[in-house]
Amino acid sequence: MTFNENTVSHSHASKLTAATRRPADFLEITMRIREVTEKTITWDFQAIRQNDGKLAAEGFIKCIAVNSEWKAVNLPPELAKTVQEKGR
Length: 88
Description:
The chain has about 90 residues and is mainly β. It has one domain: Thiol Ester Dehydrase, Chain A. About 10% of the residues lie in helices and about 50% in strands. Strands 1-4-3-2 form a four-stranded antiparallel sheet. It is elongated.
């Protein structure tokens, strides 16, 4: 995919830590697309500790398409279509 200069993305993430995580823990990260709008893509995620299956963290990531002046712009149609198709 080729995009123009208006495709820099700004993102916001939020998480809730559910279980203590140690540096040596291996995590399985799962993500799913929650929503695609004209200007944003929102993913939900969960991090599960592999050793005991406990939820280590969950939250979301929202990416916003912006231009070089950091003003929100529409997602490139090809990107929005690809994300929606892959998210099914």
